[in-house]
Input
Amino acid sequence: MNRVNRVKSGSRKPPAPVRPILHASHPWIAGHPWKEKACQLDEHQQARLSAISSIVRFEKRQIIHRAGEPVDAIYNIASGVVKSFSVDPDGSERINTFLFAGDLLGLSEEGRFTNSAQAITAVTAHRFPIAKLQRHLHREAELEFHVICKLCQELRHEQRHAILISRRDALAKIAIFLQMLEQLQAGRGESTNEIHLAMDRTEIGEYVSLSLGAVSRAFRKLAEDAVIEVRNRQHIKIRDRAAFDRLADPADDPVATFSR
Output
């Protein structure tokens, strides 16, 4: 059983309340999908969701849930980064997605988690019991629409991940991955002067389907070609935007184009 740290009240002045957030673009409005904010929760919706949830915290590298465990709640990440992964028969991990603030965690099938989840950093999240959330969504059509917007966005990210996996060139894989992170940062209203990498190089390799050595060589080559600047292992700056965008364009690869 995984240990969950629930927030407790104390004698000190409580911190500002952590409200549920859903960062999602509107799937039926034209424009830059990572800049459109039509599907954000308003204060009243945040308050109503807060009333049916509890705040939980997970330590860095703590397992949140494992594949096959019964689902009794889903999580809305308030801060931190989570990886969702599956384990192959040979024991190796395959990372399916990275989840950030504003994302929902808890993909399930027939009442059980389909993947395992682990906190990459310290994580704070809202925990929603399934029964309470289901009743709430039945009464709140607009909130249900927000959830649909979020799910549509996650489907687009899954498609983008499939395109990434289909690329044969390591430089293109890393460029697409960095572009995805940059767009997610912009969607959360964060600065994109630098791209923040909360995950390590091994986890990046598991996500983009490259060996650790290939990931390291790709970062080194992009830096040598002045496409990116590596300030440290967690902060990347795009130096040559045109070259970067060409590498990340799926139209340049026939396999990726076929996958769209």
